[in-house]
Amino acid sequence: MLVLARKKNQSIIINDDIEIFVVDINNDQIKLGIKAPKNVTVHRKEVYDSIKKQMIAAADSSIKNIKEVDLLKKKKKKNK
Amino acid sequence: MRIKSPKLGEVEFSDKEVLDFPEGLYGFEHLKRFILIEGGKKSLFSYLQSIDDENVTFIIANPAEIIKGYSIDIEQSEYDSLQIKDKEMLADFVIVTIPENIEDISVNLLGPVIINCRTNKGKQVISKNTDYSTKHNILNELQKMAS
User: Which of the residues A51, B12, B54, B97 has an alpha carbon 20 to 30 A from that of A32?
Assistant: First the structure.
């Protein structure tokens, strides 16, 4: 991994068209500004990780349980 | 063509039905081709079956049918990347998780899937609305629907 030291208001450029600025530094938190073409998506890593984790849980879903979900709905109907 | 899915049994499909996901799905980036299989007539759920790995089947749902006031909230650039120009070209759905305890049934609103119905190209995207969760419980909604 490439490691670069940057100060507030300095930036790095990736691939000629993506620029990442250090906007602010506050104790252990830094604010980054990102200038990139519209087709470049930028997201927080935790969001990626949480979606991946959930996708793996989703793939483990039992389809048999769908019938039980329907039963769940019916049970409620009877209670009415 | 046909595949044998452990979850859905033998499934027949034609070339035209194959959905192309050039980037795969999150956590399943290596799987690029899926088919969509309708659930029963009255079922809220359908299936997204991988063709590249028959063991991978997702349960999917149209969140607008389940959650009052839900609307997809993603960057315009995501639509552009699939050349989706109007609503008629768009199909969107979310992935459902049904764990052992079925009362914990949830949908992933943070990572919806969009498809261009004309080109059959699809993509999983990340919602702009960070209030959306990866585990939005839908038990209450399902019960309300039934009552």
Answer: A51
